[in-house]
Q: What sequence folds into this?
């Protein structure tokens, strides 16, 4: 399945070392101002090769709009976006073309399809996330213009390192999307040592959507939190998703967890902005866990396609921590889910209008 969403429906295509990657967005409302340069900022935030802490592959990531936009505005017909791959180095993969990297989708793709494109991991490459970010530029724009929704994220953990403070202003001024500027030198040192060691590490990204009105999300099988979890889990290397307090709820008492309401607003946000699968009007908070990447130059035991035991060493240009550049990808998936649910809510309940009483959003997070 390469298609995502119900009414705002995104299909991505392409492989990491093929001629191009792209997407088709079907169901986009007409009248949204869209220009090729609108995509540049978010694509650059996600891209490799912009700092020494990510893969050195340097893609131009220039978007060509092939359809669905006329005179600078969406027409309501399918929007097709294309990005040509300009810096693939397929020979890096010759040595492992017949091997399965431990911890990688190499093995499961092979088992599923009986074949695979080994160049750059083919379709299983994080390169695919480029098109999610591109599609979400349009969703973010519509959500902001129509509803004042803002979707932002930050890196909330690398390995065992946690932010000591959280300042939104710091996040865009360092290569890690880290919310505590004072810790950035420490992270640089950490990542330099990790890269030299040849190993990789996991990370956690927190994504926050503010301005979402109450009512988005559908019981029972279209719950907003379920769709967010599925969307975030569909990002490469993701192993866990939490909404609001997530797994910490296991240790909470009901009297602690419930978010009390006052006329001035909700007093806390343990629920992460979603009750019964429907947005409450509070900030939606999602946390995503990324595993340490599996393409390592440190030798590991493995099997090749003929079943022989082999020593596997992965050379080439890889991310020591893919979570570092995952913040825009998590934002993108949250924005795509919200866009889809906004249209779904409008379709079914657009006539309901404002319902009183409306509790102000109150606390941002728990
Ligand atoms: C990736 C491996 C690297 C990354 C790539 C994701 O690709 P290559 O081995 O071809 O240099 O550079 O990321 C991107 C190109 C991108 O745009 O995100 C992987 O194995 O997932």
A:
């Amino acid at each position: 399945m390469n298609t995502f969403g119900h009414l705002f429906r995104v299909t991505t295509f392409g492989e990491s070392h093929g001629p191009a990657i792209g997407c088709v967005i079907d169901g986009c409302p007409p009248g949204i101002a869209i220009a090729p340069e609108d995509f540049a900022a978010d694509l650059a935030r996600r891209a490799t090769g912009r700092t020494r802490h990510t893969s050195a592959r340097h893609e131009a990531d220039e978007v060509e709009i092939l359809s669905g936009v006329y005179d600078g505005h969406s027409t309501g017909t399918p929007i097709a976006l294309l990005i040509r791959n300009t810096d693939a180095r397929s020979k890096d993969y010759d040595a492992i073309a017949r091997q399965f990297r431990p911890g990688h989708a190499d093995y499961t793709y092979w088992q599923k399809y009986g074949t695979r494109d080994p160049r750059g991991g083919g379709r299983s490459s994080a390169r695919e996330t480029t098109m999610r970010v591109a599609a979400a530029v349009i969703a973010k724009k519509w959500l902001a213009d129509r509803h004042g929704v803002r979707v932002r994220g930050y890196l909330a953990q690398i390995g065992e390192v946690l932010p000591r403070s959280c300042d939104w202003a710091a996040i865009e001024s360092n290569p890690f999307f880290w919310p505590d500027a004072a810790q950035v030198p420490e992270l640089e040192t950490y990542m330099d040592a990790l890269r030299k060691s040849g190993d990789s590490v996991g990370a956690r990204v927190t994504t926050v959507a503010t301005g979402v009105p109450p009512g988005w999300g559908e019981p029972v099988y279209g719950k907003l939190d379920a769709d967010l979890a599925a969307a975030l889990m569909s990002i490469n290397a993701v192993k866990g998703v939490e909404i609001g307090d997530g797994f910490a709820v296991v240790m909470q008492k009901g009297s602690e967890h419930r978010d009390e309401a006052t006329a001035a607003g909700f007093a806390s946000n343990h629920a992460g902005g979603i009750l019964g699968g429907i947005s409450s009007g509070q900030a939606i908070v999602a946390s995503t866990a990324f595993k340490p990447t599996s393409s390592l130059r440190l030798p590991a035991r493995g099997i090749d396609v003929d079943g022989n035991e082999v020593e596997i060493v992965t050379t080439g240009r890889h991310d020591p921590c893919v979570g570092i550049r995952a913040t825009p990808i998590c934002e993108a998936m949250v924005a795509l889910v919200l866009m889809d649910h906004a249209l779904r809510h409008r379709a079914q309940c657009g006539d309901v209008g404002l319902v009183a009483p409306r509790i102000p959003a109150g606390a941002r997070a728990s």
